[in-house]
Amino acid sequence: MAYLKIVHGDITQFHGDAIVNAANTGLLGGGGVDGAIHRAAGPELDIACRKLGGCPTGEAKTTPGFNLPVKYIIHTPGPIWRDGSFEEAKLLRSSYVNSLKQAVAHDCHTVAFPSISTGVYRYPLPAATQIAIDAIRSFDAPLDVTIVCWDEPTWEAFKQAVGEA
Q1: Which domain holds residue 19?
Q2: Any idea what the CATH number is for the domain that residue 12 is in?
Q3: For residue 158, how many other CB atoms are within 10 A of its CB?
Q4: Is residue 113 part of a domain?
Q5: Residue 165 lies in a domain
Q6: In angstroms, rounded to a whole number, what is the distance separating the alpha carbons of residues 129 and 162?
Q7: What is the domain count for the chain?
Q8: Is this structure's pTM higher than 0.85?
Q9: Where are the beta strands (DSSP E) in the chain?
Q10: How distant is the alpha carbon of residue 149 from its chain centre?
Q11: Which residues are catalytic?
Q12: Is residue 85 pLDDT above 90, yes or no?
């Protein structure tokens, strides 16, 4: 079972084996955490992502960490929230689970996640936090998982969801 910790901070400063990028399906950088990771990792990340040929929503692909203090960046496009009737919950859970599978496949022991899909993709924060926590806690591998919350509302939502508030 994975061990879970919640912190408030900048995922690009995480020191460990891997970070997860809340990517778009083209894997070509964008706004929010995706843009921050691409900027911090350097131009080599763009080249590596272009070679991957995109990634479907809910799946995950891995690149080296380049200029980040991690070995790997695991890219996963989460779902865009429409109204909850387009398998958004299933796809969001898949983003977390498939990212964890990539971490195990790359022999990672420590991995950090942002809050996937809760920014510009507008997934409701309370529902997204519960899906993330359930997916991580039920994953059967000895991983140390950190959720890195960029802003105060996200940090508070995750702390409340794990019973730390």
Answers
A1: 3-160
A2: 3.40.220.10
A3: 25
A4: yes
A5: no
A6: 9
A7: 1
A8: yes
A9: 3-8, 16-23, 61-64, 70-77, 110-113, 144-149
A10: 11
A11: 34
A12: yes
